[in-house]
Amino acid sequence: MKKEIKIFYSQDWKDYELLDTGEEEKLEKFGQYIFVRPYEDAVWKKTLNEKEWAKADGKFWSSKVGAKAGWKFKLSRSNLDNKLEKKWEMSYKGIKFLASPTPFRHLGFFPEQASHWDFIERKIKEALTPQGLALGSLKARPFPAKPIKFLNLFGYTGVASLFALRAGADVTHIDASKQTIQWVKENQKFNNLDIRCPSGHRMSGMRVIEDDTVKFIEREEKRGNKYDAVIMDPPKFGRGPKGEIWKIEKDLPKLLSQVRKILSDKPLFVILNSYSINLSSLSLGYALEDAMSGFNGEVSSGELCLLEKSNNRTISLSSTAIWENKKL
Q1: Phi/psi of residue 235, each to 5°?
Q2: Distance in angstroms (rounded) separating the CA atoms of residues 262 and 133
Q3: What is the H or E stretch that residue 91 is in?
């Protein structure tokens, strides 16, 4: 069967802009700060002139260009901290989170994943509404007997988890990095999202767990815990808290097989995302389709994109595949 490649993007960003791309770099605005980061796929000329690019507060140098890898800021870091807070607040559609330059070129979130955040919130709300849960009128309506259980694997700083939580899901967030887990907890504090029923008992909340993803899933299977919705963003290569080695080409099939074992009988959706250049969106789609065989749903494959302000081009930054149950 012929597969259609979809383009996923959001036009609703206010705190972030992709200003320009070209010559293996991208120019981005994060809140009030501008940064240059590598983008090796940009094999075209820049649209904006060098004067505009020179306004950046900092630039991340890749080791591939022969320079010392890492951030270089217009001011020394000690002086820059007076202007550029170590972490500063950003938001998307009312969900707040912290941004900051990290040693791995990222700034604490991936703006191209905003379309996933929209999808997650919409699908969970749709699943809960028929049971009587309508956000904004919680005290006036009965609560569902069973919450939607959402699992975020390789969850990074937790923005997707916060959107699931706001939609009314009971969230479990997993990441192997101690520093990242602390960042998740900081983001969680910004958003008072635990939903409680009129009696005061928690209806939905968020567990944040530092753990190796594969081992966590194995334990959840033994405990008999099931999830209705899953998002996973496995790295190309990584290490767990105890030195466990992860290689996506070798370990992805095993991961998908294990995730299937902890899904509920009628799951809502499973999202698979990858920044590995070795895995196309079609490859992710076929792998997810195979893993979800037997469930009543459909797989969409495509690219997570951003719209470039300087040239109005659609810039692809990640491959993704989404399985969703469309009959609930």
Answers
A1: -75, 165
A2: 25
A3: strand 88-92
